[in-house]
Each structure stands twice: as C-alpha cells, then as structure tokens.
Amino acid sequence: MCAIVGIIKKSEKVNFEGLKKMADVMSYRGPDEEGYFLEENIGLAHKRLSIIEIK
Predict the structure, then answer these.
(1) CB atoms closer than 10 angstroms to residue 23
(2) Three-class SS of residue 5?
(3) Please, are residues 5 and 27 in contact by the beta-carbon 8 Å criterion?
(4) How far apart are CA 4 and CA 28, in angstroms?
(5) Global confidence as pTM
(6) pLDDT (tens digit, 0 to 9) for every residue of the chain, 55 residues total?
C-alpha cells in the first residue's frame, strides 16, 4: 500500500516542514520507504506502507 500527500500554493514556496508533518500522519502504518519532491510552489510526499494483515 502507498499513501500520497501534496501541497500547491499560488504565490509562495512550499515549506518542507509542513509537507513532512502531513506525511508523518501516515507513519502509524510503519512505513517501509518514503520520498519527497519540492519545486517552488509544489510539494509532494509519498510513503510506502507496510501491509497489516487482519486475522
């Protein structure tokens, strides 16, 4: 499973700390991997999440 978050701002740069906070909300699933993309007013983050089996 994967989770993706993003921010788009019209007139200012995206703050990495804000983007990281958004992505960290998904960390309870035990991320296997993560990545970030920042360019001026666009920020994207992804986390590849561990699969939790329901028994």
Answers:
(1) 22
(2) strand
(3) no
(4) 15
(5) 0.74
(6) 678 899 999 989 999 999 999 888 877 666 678 899 999 899 999 888 777 677 7
Tell me, what DSSP letter sits at residue 2? E
Q: Three-state DSSP class for 13?
A: coil
- Cα separation of 31 and 16, whole Å? 19
Active site residues: 2
- Structure-token pair, residue 23: 């992505």
Block residue for tokens 């700390």:
17
Q: Where are the domains of the chain?
A: 2-49
Q: Where are any strands of DSSP class E within the chain? A: 2-8, 31-39, 42-49
Residue pair 16/23 in contact by the 8 Å Cβ criterion: no
Q: In this structure, what token pair is assigned to residue 9? A: 């701002």
